[in-house]
Amino acid sequence: MASVEEVCRFRGALLGALVGDCIGAVFETRMTITVGSVLSFLRGLENNWKKQVLMYTDDTAMARSVVQSLLTKPPLDEKDLAERFTAEYFSDPDRGYGMGVVHVFEKLQSGKYQSVFTPAKEQFNGKGSYGNGAAMRVVGIPLAFPNVPDIIKYAKISGELTHASSLGYNGAILLALAVHYALQGVNLSRESFLEHLLSNMQEIEGDEKSRSDAESHFRLELGEFPYCNRLKKIKEFLDKGNVPRCEVVEELGHGVAAFESVPTAIYSFLRCMDPVDDLPKEMNSLQRTVIFCILLGGDTDTIATMAGAIAGAYHGEDQVPELWRKSSEGYKDAEDWGKQLWELYSSRLPS
Ligand code: R7I
Ligand code: MG
Ligand code: MG
Ligand code: MG
C-alpha cells in the first residue's frame, strides 16, 4: 500500500469519528429523526458554514486526549491519560458527558485515590461502568499500534481508567479491532472482517472476568458472550439484506451501554458498504454510514462517531465531504494528528 493511501486512512478514521460526533450530536435529543430532516440539516450546512461551527461532544473531547497522550507519552502512560481526561473535563464540563463518569473525574481531581484505576472500579456499586465511553474515544489506539495484542492491551488499559466493567472495556477493544481491520481496506472481505473480530472476541470474552461480568448483567437469557452473540447477529442481518432499522434497534440496540451500541456501529458500517434504499444514490459509503446511524436514533453522536471511525479507516478521508469536515470543530487537528499517528504506527511496524 502506498504511503499516501495509508495516511489518507489514518486521517479518514479521525475525521470520520469527528463528523459522526458533530453531526450525530445535533440529533441526539430529537424524538423523530426522518431521512428528510437529516438531509435538510446537511443541506443547510452549505449556507451556514463559517457562521455555525458544529461543536464536538465528550466523545471527541476524550478521543483527543487519548491521541495527544499517545503522541507525547509513548507507548501509553495511564497517569498522563487520566490527567488529560480530568483536565479536559474541568476545563469544559458541558460537552455532554455520561452521568456516572463525572464522579471518576471528581475523584481523580481530588488526588485521593490508591491508583488512577481505583475511581473507575468504584462506579456503580463496585461493578464498574458498562457505558460506551471507553469505546467512543478509542480510535487513536488502533492508529498507533499495528498489532493485535498491543491494540487489545492498550484499548483495555485506556478504557479501564473510567470503565472497569469488562462489558465497557471489551466494547472499546472490539471497536479498536474493527478500526484496525478496516485500515486494511478492500484487502479484507466483509466476511473475513467479521470472522477476525469474532475469533478475537471469543478469546477475550472467554476470560473469567468477562464471563462473570456478563453473567451478572445478563443472567442466562442472553448467553455469556454478549459481543460474540451480537457479532453473529450482525452476520445474520447482513445475509438477510435489507433489515428494517427498527429491527436493528431491537436486536442490536442504540443505547449508551457499550454492548447496545458498538455492535450497532459495526453493523452500520458493513451494511452501508452497499447502497441503502431510502438514501440518495449519489452519497458515498461513509456518508451513508453516518446518516444510517443517526436514523437509528438513541445515542446518535456516539454510534455515528464509532461507525465513522471504522468507515473513515476503510474508505479514507476522501469520503469525508469537505463541507462536513470544515463545519466540524477542530477538524485541522484531526488532519495533523492523522499524519502523526501514521508515522508512529509505521515506526512500530516490524522492519
Ligand atoms: O460511558 P460514559 O462515558 O457515557 C458515554 C455516553 C455517550 O453517549 C456520550 O456521548 C455521552 O452522552 O455519554 O459514561 P458513564 O456514566 O460511565 O455511562 C453512561 C451511562 O450508562 C450511565 O449514566 C448509566 O446510565 C449507564 N450505565 C449503567 N447503568 C447501570 N449499571 C453504565 N454502567 C452502568 C451500570 O453498571
Ligand atoms: Mg457525546
Ligand atoms: Mg449524551
Ligand atoms: Mg452519545
Quick description:
With 351 residues, this protein is an all-alpha fold.
What do you see in this structure?
By secondary structure, this protein is mostly helical. The chain is built from 20 helices and no strands. It is globular, with a radius of gyration of 19 Å. The mean pLDDT is 95. Inosine diphosphate ribose binds next to α3, α8 and α18. One magnesium ion binds next to loops.
Bound molecules: inosine diphosphate ribose, magnesium ion
Beta percentage is under 5%
Task: Provide the succession of SSEs.
Answer: HHHHHHHHHHHHHHHHHHHH
**Average pLDDT:** 95
- What would you call the structural class? mainly alpha
Notable characteristics:
351 residues; mainly alpha; 20 helices; 67% helix; binds inosine diphosphate ribose; binds magnesium ion
Blueprint of the fold:
Blueprint: H1 3-26, H2 35-48, H3 58-72, H4 78-91, H5 101-110, H6 118-121, H7 123-126, H8 133-136, H9 140-144, H10 148-160, H11 166-182, H12 190-205, H13 208-218, H14 226-240, H15 245-252, H16 262-271, H17 285-295, H18 300-315, H19 322-327, H20 331-347
Helix pairs in contact: 1-17, 1-18, 1-20, 3-4, 3-20, 4-5, 10-11, 11-12, 11-18, 12-14, 14-16, 16-17, 16-18, 17-18
The structure holds inosine diphosphate ribose (R7I) and magnesium ion (3 copies).
